[in-house]
Amino acid sequence: AAVCLSIHTGGDGGPGASCCYFGSDTTHSPAGRRLAEAIHRELTARLGLADRGTAPLAVAVLRETRMPAVQVEPGSIADPEDERRLLDASFRRRLATAIADGLERFLAPADPAGDLRAGGPRAPRSRAT
After folding, report:
1. Which of 126, 106, 127 is nearest to 116 (CA)?
2. Rounded to whole angstroms, how far apart are CA atoms 3 and 69?
3. From 1, 117, 123, 127, which residue has the greatest number of CB atoms within 10 Å?
4. Cα separation, 22 vs 61, whole angstroms
């Protein structure tokens, strides 16, 4: 696998979106951080979710991988507004597209004129529903 992606909707993070990558007081995953930033950019820009940022986290699912790993937190089921969004099928489809676009941005080769991965969110793709 090229990456490890975990989706977490627990109740301890507060409302809004965040993405975590492996990190501790002494080290972190630079590739995991870039992946978290690419996905997070799509979540906040495309879906308009409150921005809780990206952050290092030292949990097994991120620490014990040999590939870039992220924990995507698109909202908290403890927040009534986030819970309502997470229960909506249309929102979940848009969420999946935003995550996929962030992943594509991370995996895309760098553009010789500038790093494509460092840009803003991609234009939304049209998908058959």
Report:
1. 106
2. 6
3. 117
4. 9
